[in-house]
């Protein structure tokens, strides 16, 4: 990373180079700082919290205050321009959505943050790229599987694709080898049952394992046809 990079460029760079974009999605309001700290200690430098999480804006502010520029925040499930604006004001540098909403993209562009809209079909991926998305989140990725990434990359070789939904430690490497620039997920990193048994240290170990698997896959991947 160079000093010439702005926050948007840094966010995209770290998404692609670490190759892991974990998401926090909760149904109740709680202190997310321990989760953010656990992910950071595991090597994560870009993390998402869904806008459906109660108290999410306060969580963004608290995490931003604690980590400053050391950790990039993404607002997940950002469905409206108002939600995008609120998230940006609370400190996020990436706006993520499960679908392409042009007005959300406009807000991200206006405030010079990265935008990762969701898509599934080839038409949707093209529309997202034409709208100015830096990364396209393929959702739900498990419906098509890893080889679908290779098909999309063969027609859109410059696309930065991040599969989300239904990934696992066992499938992450194959998604990367098939052309994904990173992998994402929520339960993979913040599993209430596992945390109840092992504590937040489980999050750290899970993050480290995903980063290791993805790094190995990137190092050993063959060029796509």
**Main beta sheet: strand number and arrangement?**
6 strands, parallel
By CATH, the architecture of the domain at 7-118 and 182-215 is named Alpha-Beta Barrel
Q: Which residue ranges are poorly predicted, with pLDDT under 50 across at least 5 consecutive positions?
A: none
Instruction: Compute the CA-based radius of gyration.
Output: 16 Å
The number of E-state strands comes to: 9
Approximately how much helix is present in the residues? 40-55%
- Provide the succession of SSEs: HEHEHEHEHEEHEHEHEHH
**SS summary, helix count:** 10
Mind telling me the CATH superfamily name of the domain at 7-118 and 182-215? Aldolase class I
The backbone outline, from C-alpha atoms, is: globular
- Under CATH at level 1, the class of the domain at 7-118 and 182-215 stands as Alpha Beta
Task: Report mean pLDDT, rounded to a whole number.
Answer: 95
Summarize the SSE layout with pairings.
Layout lengths: L6 H12 L1 E5 L8 H9 L4 E5 L5 H12 L4 E5 L4 H9 L4 E3 L5 H9 L3 E3 L1 E2 L2 H10 L4 E3 L7 H10 L5 E3 L5 H9 L5 E3 L6 H7 L2 H20 L5
Q: Could you provide a short overview of the structure?
A:
This protein has 225 residues and is of the alpha/beta class. It has a domain at 7-118 and 182-215: TIM Barrel, CATH 3.20.20. The chain contains ten helices and nine strands.
